[in-house]
Hints:
Blueprint: H1 2-11, E1 18-24, E2 27-31, E3 37-38, H2 44-57, E4 63-65, E5 84-86, H3 87-96, H4 100-110, H5 112-122, E6 146-147, H6 149-160, H7 168-180, E7 201-209, E8 212-221, E9 224-232, H8 238-256
Antiparallel strand pairs: 1-2, 1-9, 3-6, 4-5, 7-8, 8-9
Helix pairs in contact: 1-8, 2-3, 2-4, 3-4
Amino acid sequence: MLEEKLKALVSKQATDNIAYQIEYQGKVYSYRNEHIFRSASITKIPLCLSALKKGELLDENPRLDASKKVMGSGVLHSMEDTITMTLHDLVTIALIVSDNTASNVLMDYVGFDQMSKDFKAWGLKDTELKSHYMNMNADPNKMYNIATASGMMTALNLIYEDNEYISQPVRDRMKRLLRQQQFNDRVGGTLDDGGDESHITVSSKSGTIDKLEHDVGIFKMDKEILKFAVLSQGWPTNLDGRQFLIEVGHLLKAEME
């Protein structure tokens, strides 16, 4: 059984700071799914949902100031001549290359108060964004941006299930961008996914900071979808965390085959 295999895998790890929620064929597999973690980049999923929803409500795709660049993941910090970008393009690079600058611009576009209202209205339990990415003035001992496996599964369901909050055009855009996401070597690392849609494919968003590795997304084969939110921290090295996520992916792949 998948549940027993997942728990056995978790029990062998060098950290016990692991949580997951997996949904497949009407079954829910969860472990510490309400435990709060630093979110790293996985909260770029609800951030982009909030930004696209605002743009849709205002019927706009504005060009936004992207001149205040920060380091870390992404490409904008290396693009000297790019000062503005459209909302849709900022969402694109925030997701597919996890661009921190683009994400910060989206936070300012939506506003922290509105993001908080959206997340609560959508039922994203203990999922918060209260600080820009790469904020050098933030207290390193505080957790400003947080997430749970349960909350991130709710975010996935806003994209992959019909709901009253997110329109079909926004859901379709998010599906497309998560499919194009380039850091898909965590849970999706077990797949031979070269873009061929005839076998199991992965659409996901990972999150990585020191000794922390998260991955949130879906495996898809034909019309079958398996959703996963796996969060973990306290690893001896990030490589250990990534190997664990690959092994989780191996179990999920076997379950679908």
